Amino acid sequence: MSTPNQSRNTNAFFAQAGISFAIALLAMVFAILYLPVDPWIRAFLGLGTLFLTTSAFTLAKCVRDAQENQYVVSRLDQARVDKILADHDPFKAVV
Fold first, then answer.
1. Rounded to whole angstroms, what are the CA distances from 13 to 9, 48, 69?
2. What is the rounded distance in angstroms from the CA atom of residue 46 to the CA atom of residue 54?
3. What is the spatial distance between Cα 15 and Cα 86, in angstroms, rounded to a whole number?
4. Of 84 and 5, which is predicted with more confidence?
5. Residues 33 and 39: beta-carbon distance below 8 Å
6. Which chain regions cross the lipid bilayer (predicted)?
7. Segment 37-93, tens digit of pLDDT
8. Is the Cβ–Cβ distance between 6 and 71 less than 8 Å?
């Protein structure tokens, strides 16, 4: 169920994000493989790249989860307000 306040990414944006991530990761791997240094330095840079990549995915998931939680809370608040307005009778006499 989509509301006007909820933004959706287009397929083109999703494709661009995936392609740019793949290019950046491949460029980093290529640079590490062809760097004229000892193998242990390459291994250290490779582990750093792996750690950076996995932590970027984890951060993106945490941001997404926080945004979804905020959306659910705002939907619950709106449902409560809608129920109060639906139950309200402006013509009922105050006793």
1. 6, 28, 23
2. 12
3. 43
4. 84
5. no
6. 12-34, 40-60
7. 999 999 999 999 999 999 999 999 999 888 888 787 788 888 888 888 888 877 777
8. yes
Instruction: State which amino acid sits at residue 38.
Output: D
Please determine, for residue 94, whether its predicted confidence score (pLDDT) is greater than 80: no
Q: Please give, one letter per residue, the 3-state secondary structure of the chain.
A: CCCCCCCCCCHHHHHHHHHHHHHHHHHHHHHHHCCCCCHHHHHHHHHHHHHHHHHHHHHHHHHHHHHHHHHHHHHHHHHHHHHHHHHCCCCCCCC
Alpha carbon distance 56, 63 (integer Å): 11
The amino acid present at 11, given as its one-letter code, is N
- With CA atoms as reference, report the closest residue to 49 among 62, 35, 65, 66: 35
Q: Give the max Cα distance, the chain.
A: 87
